[in-house]
Amino acid sequence: MKKLLAQAYLWLLLILLYAPIIIIAIFSFTESKVLGNWTGFSTRLYQNLFSGGVNNSLISAIENTIFIAIVAATLSTMLGSVAAIGIHNMHGKNKKVISFLNDIPMLNPDIITGISLFILFVALGISQGYITVILAHITFCTPYVVLSVLPRLKQMNPNEYEAALDLGATPFQALRKVIMPEIKGGMISGWILSFTLSIDDFAVTLFTKGNEGLETLSTYIYADARKGGLTPELRALMTIIFVTVLVLLIIINVRTAKAQKKQAK
Amino acid sequence: MKRSTWASPYFIFLLLFVALPLILILVYAFQDNEGHFTFQHFVKFASESESINTFTYSIEIAVITTLLCLLLGYPAAWILSNKALNRSSVTIILFILPMWINMLVRTLATVALFDFMSLPLGEGALIFGMVYNFLPFMIYPIYNTMQKMDHSYEAAAQDLGATPSQVFRKVTLPLSMPGVSSGILMVFMPTISTFAIAELLTMNKVKLFGTTIQENINNGMWNYGSCLALIMLVIIGITMLYSDEQSAQDDEKGGLI
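Output (structure tokens, whole complex):
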């Protein structure tokens, strides 16, 4: 009885949490302009999305989002991994200072990160566009890369790198052949995390995209919703995003579960 | 070359894109249009009833949202971590999953739900939307703490004759406090700083502190906007210090047992 009540409570909460998403997913399979109006099953919205049946600005917003996420995630992973190796070998006060600075972007609310970077770019006279958005995304993604690579370095035998150098490897060779294989898992997790954070971002992008017409998916949706009435195709897109996130999350979970199992051995 | 120097590029990056922007907010907040030192923005904030009202209203909404999330989320976390009541790991993933969906998409989904049920948008929608958006952030840390909790304390209390409600009040609740305080932090901080969510959920009828900051920055009032951002930063800093202290105290208590 107690168990039944407990399960009922959990599922009631879950229904509440998922009701909005489920409604959008259901109505992504009908053509009607207004949500809540079922005009028969159709995959037209999905077809429009992929065959260019929607306006170009939505397509270019999607392209921008993916482009920015790939570039920002890749640069963050490079910057963060090298930094993690450095931080791992640091001691005392320097390590504390850099760890503190590394924590700030994770703790800061998006709006503060966005506004502070906006003011920086204005103060330095940098015109805002792709480059400023990518720099901003690197700012809030890299800390997560650092935090996913550091544990891998801690697990590593510190003598391996020294041994490689003693045997005549250059520091770069030692990095590529000794350290890289050990931290690869952390780098991949860091990249995936950065990619999702970048795609997900709205507030920071809004403040750093400038007004030259650069839109990512979130800022496009925001502008669209502000005008009142969502483009129907966005329902299909939101459903796709939801399923993609679900799959990515499962991959990450399986990866960490595997890593933990390995560690336990 | 020492390997510790490998962190240098990132250190320079952090100084330029994390430290400097925050310093600029601090400087701009105390500057007038000609660049002279001034308190005028803070005076303006404190003397205008509209800005003070928006500010207190935002805190009110954030507190209500946090309390509702705690009220709904604590039992859920307790059930999820209790092996006798819930054995499936799928339900746990289902609770965490919404954390990874774009906040804006979730907000618009809430708007769609209200439209679909022909409910009016406004304060009710705002609070529902906020709770809906942030509930997973309350459940997850509490669940995590309860998961790591040593359940033999509960068993011991029971063996020593405590009633179920006594076990909960004297053992489970105190041991889960670290999770509760980080849950409060994870819900309160984003709710106090949201801007677009409120605008979309209330058709711009209700204005929150975050919206005011955004409007000022968009309208080129950078100094006043920086002043407001600084006020928000101070509140966030206080919240964070408070919860740090809480968890430090809890750690101490944990050490004493």
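Chain B has eleven helices and no strands.
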